[in-house]
Amino acid sequence: MVKVIKLLSGNEALALGAYHAGVKVAAAYPGTPSTEILESIARFDDIYAEWSTNEKVAMEVALGAAYAGARSLVSMKHVGLNVASDPFMAASTTGVNAGMVVISADDPGIHSSQNEQDNRHYAKLAKVPMLEPSDSQEAYELMTYAFDISERFDTPVLVRTTTRISHSKSVVKVNRSRVEPVESTGFQHDVEKYVMLPAYARLRHPLLEARLVKLAAYAETFPLNQIQWGQRHLGVVTSGVAYQYAREIFPKASVLKLSMTYPLPENLLRHFAAQVDRIIVIEELTPFLQESIQAMGIKVTGKEFIPRVGELNPSIVEERSRAAGLLAETSPRQGVAIASKLPRRPPLLCPGCPHAGIFFVLSSIGQRSKSPKSKNKAPKEPKLIITGDIGCYTLATYPPLCAMDTTACMGAGIGQALGMEKAGISNKVVAVIGDSTFLHSGITPLVNAVYNEGRITVIILDNRTTAMTGHQDHPGTGISAQGKETKAVELEHLVRGIGVSDVKVIDAFNVRGLRAAVRSSLGSPELSVIIVHGACPVHVPRRSEPRAVDTEKCNQCGICLLTGCPAIRSENEQVYIDTALCVGDACTICQQICPRQAIGPQSKIEAKKSS
Amino acid sequence: MKKLDLLITGVGGQGVILASDIIGEAALAAGYDVKKTDTLGMAQRGGSVVSHVRIAYQVWSPLIKEGEVDILVAFEKLEAARWGHYLRPGAVAIVNNHALPPLSVTLGNERYPSDEEITNILRQRTDRIYFVNGTSRVSELGNIRTLNIFMLGCASLFVPLKVHIWKDSISQRVSSSIRQINITAFDQGRKEIRNVHL
Questions:
Q1: Which pLDDT belongs to residue A371?
Q2: Can you tell me the ipTM of this complex?
Q3: Which among A247, A337, A467 has the least Cβ separation from residue B60?
Q4: A383 band by pLDDT with thresholds 50, 70 and 90
Q5: C-beta atoms of B107 and A345 within 8 A
Q6: From CA A143, how far away is CA A40, in angstroms rounded?
Q7: What is the number of CB-based contacts under 8 A between chain A and chain B?
Q8: Please, which pLDDT band fits residue A515 given cuts at 50, 70 and 90?
Q9: Domain at A275, CATH number
Q10: Alpha-carbon dihedral B43, A163, A309, B68, rounded to 10 degrees
């Protein structure tokens, strides 16, 4: 019975599916493309939803809830599962009790990530079942199956989605309503199941292997693994969004769509293989399905012509299939010239960004960027090494700021800075980290730096939000995922409590103060932390009088352009400020750094002009 | 209609995603299958944004194949040229005649293409290019943020959906305080396209 028809993103559909499946506890750390799953869940009052400090904690919260008899959900981006892999492996070993679903949102094409890993391999590593939706309808429906499988086989279930599924909207026929959670049985004491001492862990391992055999038998009858018969000369095995591309490019072929991709239904695959002349696999990234099918002794091709790198799209699948002789030749389409020569438009720090001032200061003290006027001079070797990690501030890598040397993963910059120091880098190494990232994974490396007598400078960019993923709250804001006021963690107290004595707290829009703090820290023989406070302009929009350039005073030195502020533009050799973009009094960084005092409030500049 | 593939392009903050949501919801209300997908990288603001909207009785891929776009709606000129290769021969291209130079251009490292270069890129696929003065029209209206709805008004003349379906979808997605000005922007967009001579 269809109740409502909606246009939902994959993430919204996963959330609605989980709600209808009776989820009681949900936890996550924001990460593109997974963030909207928990954001959507948090709107349901009858679910407890939290932003956890990181994915490992989120996984442990969900696992505890499942142990205690409540259906639980934990969602994260692909690299989040690296952080949470320790409790994930443990969850597989102990099993769950009530249903527990782990959603991993992978990012083929690296739209917003640091790598392109294929998390399907985690299912195999952890010996847990994996489901993959191919559109929002399936995302919605899969959640009910996922929780049922989890409880029936006493295992966490991995639901693997990708950016194109999570962030595409398609039609969902909502045909259920919420299954009210059964009254929790509570936690059943069972040390052999829940306490993984070696003696008990040894007892669990054979149970996991037996569970996998039962799951493989279940996969044979899983209703969303479907054969769609067409012509028999070509059979396509596919899953996820690649299924959509397969249907588009091979409308007449027979298709085996796998929605449960681990363990695989071997008999179903053999049955399909026996009925078609040739089998190909269309899948994104690694040959995960292909190698497993080959291991069954079934002759199949795929990665011989479908790329292993990057996101697929229908054009790629069509071109590569044509090159492999699977499609008839057509007359080549006339290409469009010059499109590749157009200027690119990478993302930028916003006008009024609290990161602009500190990176401008680091860039100038470290002699890292060059003035637009000195274009032809060879760049000097930078005086400062700046280690960083993941957040909006990673964008400071780009010109004109050029103020970041490393980005590996969440929280990595602090440990890296210490490592560089211990390797013999004589100048003080600076590590920059956002507030949300510091709470996620910056505390332990800072403890490590205190303990091991590091002399590095750590700059915490405290914009009071998780900006990059769309402004989620975190422990530093004291607001919960469901909008309730809770306790806020004070960064300064936390850092001092760890044992750092040189701690400075500076306003992000006070350039002189920032410069003095950085110089003092670089000159100090001890470990120092600078906390740079300033609200994100997108999160807390404060607009007042925009700045303007006094063209009589301005000598076109171009220093203001080095902040990278998108509101400052240059046309016909004259710098001007886009008043629609400038946030005004809340920032004034360009005004503070102008050597000729040629920037001021628009009304003053205009009054001067007219007088 | 058998199928209609639209590409909406612009710069982060211009309202591309809301506009493509509204097209999708209008088509769903008219009984079609719809898929839409956005590619916006890691930008909250200021990067290139492109949204694919596919309307048909049954849609498979959410991404449109290169060379198959029926209607391009570009909120910025450079972002029209960037996606020219996606147009099918004879497609409609509606381009807001407004330039937002990227930072690399401001810093003098790259050059913004001339109007002639932009037109020539699009001409390789189609002559049906409509340059509209969206930014100045909505500035006159008094709310620059209605540009996306103005551009929808322009596009609506090429999409066989009834005007009231468009307006219902718009009304459902904008708050009541700015509903009227957005409806006016939509009407202005429809009027504008009628006055453009190719």
A1: 57
A2: 0.96
A3: A247
A4: confident
A5: no
A6: 15
A7: 156
A8: very high
A9: 3.40.50.920
A10: -90
